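#dry-run=false #mode=assembly
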Amino acid sequence: MLSKGAFSPPDWAKHLNPAPSSIYCLAQLPSPIHRWDLPNLPADTQVWIKRDDLTGMQLSGNKVRKLEFLLAEAKLQGADCVITIGGIQSNHCRATAVAARYLDLDCYLILRTSKVLVNEDPGLVGNLLVERLVGAHVELVSKEEYTKHGSEALGDMLVEKLRAQGRKPYLIPVGGSNSLGTWGYISAAQEIEQQIEAGTCPRFDEIVMACGSGGTTAGLALGNHLSMIKSKVHGYTVCDSPDYFYDYIQGLLDGLHAQVDSRDIVRLVDAKGLGYALSSTGELELVKEISEATGVILDPVYSGKALHGMVKDMVCDAKYWTGKKVLFIHTGGLLGMFDKLQQIQPLTGNWRRMQIM
Ligand SMILES: Cc1ncc(COP(=O)(O)O)c(C=O)c1O
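#status=ok
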């Protein structure tokens, strides 16, 4: 943990360029894969789950895999602080804040919130509590400002400001989803391949995950395509549209000179529902039902929506999923649930005053 080492890509990824030269060990890996007995599956369908929600505590979830590469580059470049950007409950921003502190880097977070809240203390709910405990500098912008300027320009503005103060900032894009960050899930594919080879789990017909900024899906789809895993990869998009993500993922693949077409290596399905980070009652009911049935708690913004999308798919096309072995990637994000307390409370009735004899 926290050591930096040389990185050597798997043989099947040696042609990808650029390849990272070093990696920081930040995550608890390999993350386990186990059977996940979901209720109401089509006949003979088996679901397994890869627990990337268990890659750490403060550093839990999928983002830590990308940060292992991104922060190694930041250090190599002599940065003294990092900047990143996301929604007010961004798991990526929380993971970046923690990892940066571990590596003695200051962290600046540009967080998007509503116009009515942008001038107020953002509070301590969920990811914000961790970010503020580890001393990240929180810079709020409104959704309107975010749309007007774009995440890149806002990041660049802060880079300029910090440089003018003599700092050496390293800018990480939304979700850590650039070509370097994509190596996080190319490596995760290698990890799955090794787990299959070791007999920890079977070969899978299908791999399912949430797609929020594209890097996780791009890395896994590419790793799956190049390695011997060769499953069908399904990314359930929780914002924007599948077409947007086919193009975005293509950019990440082209950035690695992968010479593959995104549409050939992943199926993207719209699972946005009411919109990014907006939960329908049906989605939250499913999260509650699955928590109660299996003990695995999904987050409401990413994996909860992905599972909701997958279940819908299984109902619409039960024939396709019948008899399949499916691997669901749980990408973490539990802290986001604290932002949904009011909505989730009516679904949780199990308490009473103890009868003392
Ligand atoms: C918990 C969680 N799961 C999934 C995702 C989606 O991953 P990606 O941004 O790489 O598409 C994110 C971030 O966007 C996340 O925070």
